[in-house]
Amino acid sequence: MTTAVQAILQATLNGDPISVTTPTWAIIEAQIVTKTKRRLAKYNQLTASPAEQRQQLNEIFLKPMPTSSTIEVPFHSDFGRHIFVGERVFVNQDCMFTDMGGIYLADDVLIGPKVSLITVNHLEDPRYRRQVQPKPIHVEQGAWIGAGAIVLPGITIGAHAIVGAGSVVTKDVLPDMVVVGNPARVVRKIKLENE
Fold first, then answer.
1. Do the beta carbons of residue 113 and residue 148 sit within 8 Å?
2. How far is Cα 177 from Cα 49, in angstroms, rounded to an integer?
3. What is the reported pTM?
4. How many CB atoms lie within 10 A of CB 113?
5. Residues 152, 163 contacting (CB under 8 angstroms)
6. CA torsion, points 27, 28, 33, 39, in degrees to nearest 10?
7. Is 11 helix (H, G, I), strand (E, B) or coil?
8. CA atoms within 13 A on the CB side of 145
């Protein structure tokens, strides 16, 4: 991987706007995005063994996924290199991770089916709309994102928080809170069974 490509990849993790029309971006498309698509196609084949599937993910992700964590098939990503998975994470089927800005799943995170985690957005100014603005998503320890939820760029889901099914998260979620709706709003603090 060239120094220019490494620099642009680091810039995306730093949150710098990136133009998708540059020669360097074309290299990223050829060297990373195309390979990720091929590897995910193999990963999503139901005939692949668990060991083969894990190998495909570990070739996509920048850091290997812990053996205690699971990502169900099918799984979709447009980039793949910037997904960071902690211990005992469970990602249910048919999720989409747009991860150029960085997706960080802490230990014990639960992700329901058909969840979308989106870390990039286009710039509003029409003159620069072919640029993307990456911003990371952090899902902190033990948080649970319900089926079909969408989490937008730059959001942090606090520890043990719950995002209700179908919610669209446009603002950070504090630890131990339950949010629902579009846009997601706090409805209450999580209930503990012995209280």
1. yes
2. 38
3. 0.92
4. 14
5. no
6. 80
7. helix
8. 34
Burial class of residue 10 (count of CB atoms within 10 Å of its CB; 0-12, 13-18, 19+): exposed
What DSSP assignment string belongs to 104-130? EE-TT-EE-TT-EEE-EEE-SSGGGTT
CA end-to-end span of the chain: 54
Which secondary structure element, helix H or strand E, spans residue 9, and what is its range? helix 3-14
Query: Which residues carry out catalysis?
Result: 122
Kindly state the tokens that stand for 107. Answer: 């230990």
The rounded average pLDDT for each run of 10 residues, N- to C-terminus, in the chain (195 residues) is 75 82 79 87 80 87 92 92 96 96 97 97 87 93 98 98 98 98 96 77
pLDDT, position 193: 79
| Strand-strand pairing, 168-169 and 185-189 | unpaired
